[in-house]
Amino acid sequence: MTPLPESIARSWQMAALSRDLRGRPLARTVADTPLVLFRDQAGQAAALIDRCPHRNYPLSGGRIIGGGIQCPYHGWRFGPDGACMDVPGCTLDASETRRLAAQTVEVREIHGAVLVRLAPGGSDLPDLGPWAAADHDHFWWSQGVWRGRALDALENVLDPFHTNFIHDGIIRRSTRRIPVRLSVKAGETWIESIIEQPQPDMGWMSRILEPPRDRSRTRLHSPTLVQARWEGPRGLTLCVTVFFTPVTPTRLMPFACFTTPKGRGPGWLKERAIRFFLEKVVAQDRHALARQLDNIERFGAPRFLQGPGDLLGPRVAQLYQGQEIEPAEEGPFDFEL
Ligand code: FES
Ligand SMILES: [Fe+2]
């Protein structure tokens, strides 16, 4: 399988939910790189390459002691800056702490997300609008590691035409479609598709959940961050921000943050309702990505065609690879969904 593009290592990738990072080391793989995450004495998140520099034992099997992580093999201990703090049984010369250091990875924590950047040189996080706004309700949803290619997951979430089939009856229907207008906007590092439709989708979930909807827009920020916003006559109804973290070339770990304006019922109730309705949809996409991967592996490599509904075309793959694209405004075009 094609290796992951360098753009992944050079961008901020979500490695964990803040709430999953507590008193124990957390092993995660991001962009084919094994990491260990932990919190130091001040509660700050830290990340090291999950390989003890001494004899290469995995540090993630160790314990957190005095704000550092202790390797289970000989007990060397490393601080959040990687410096070796202790070599049990020996006197550690202060001049040696850097030579014996573990390799660190850049970390930041924002709005319940622990993000890592494996290599320097990439761009910062884009402006994500309401996703962290205090006057909104938020919750995170993650289901661990999925089988599938991150690029295929990006295409899946940006593509409305699969919803009539993979989510037949839940979001839309394969047999009863409604007219929509699709347009595309792009900047150098992002692309979005906008759906304008006069009536709600035909699936039961959409019928129950959706207040009148004017439009939805789904934007891919290079390389792997997607944000979808649904808007009604009174503005935003739902915003979903998804970090599609590539784990290996054939595995990914999606983290989704759901944002709704405060006021329409308590936050916990909205979370329950969204989880209840989306559980099945998420399972269907997860299953589809795994089947797609199986078949790509059966044939040895992907070979894709662009159809008349694939308005974003090869630009999704270009952004995923970290290439800049031409700014554009295209449409609206008439379709039925
Ligand atoms: S391998 Fe980690 S302390 Fe020896
Ligand atoms: Fe889907």
Count of separate structural domains: 2
Which term fits the overall shape? Answer: elongated
> What is the CATH class designation of the largest domain?
Alpha Beta
CATH superfamily of the largest domain: Naphthalene 1,2-dioxygenase Alpha Subunit, Chain A, domain 1
Keywords for this structure?
single chain, 337 residues, alpha+beta, Rieske Iron-sulfur Protein, Naphthalene 1,2-dioxygenase Alpha Subunit, Chain A, domain 1, 2 domains, 9-stranded antiparallel beta sheet, 6-stranded antiparallel beta sheet, 5 helices, elongated, binds FE2/S2 (inorganic) cluster, binds fe (ii) ion
Describe the structure.
This protein is of the alpha+beta class. Helix content is 18%, strand content 35%. It contains five helices and 19 strands. Strands 11, 12, 13, 14, 15, 16, 17, 18 and 19 form a nine-stranded antiparallel β-sheet that branches. Bound molecules: FE2/S2 (inorganic) cluster (FES) and fe (ii) ion.
Give me the secondary-structure topology:
Elements: H1 6-10, E1 13-17, E2 26-30, E3 33-39, E4 45-49, E5 63-65, E6 68-70, E7 77-78, E8 84-86, E9 104-110, E10 113-117, E11 136-142, E12 146-147, H2 150-158, E13 179-186, E14 190-196, H3 204-209, E15 215-221, E16 225-232, E17 235-248, E18 251-261, H4 267-299, H5 315-320, E19 328-336
FE2/S2 (inorganic) cluster is lined by residues 52, 54-55, 57, 71, 73-74, 76.
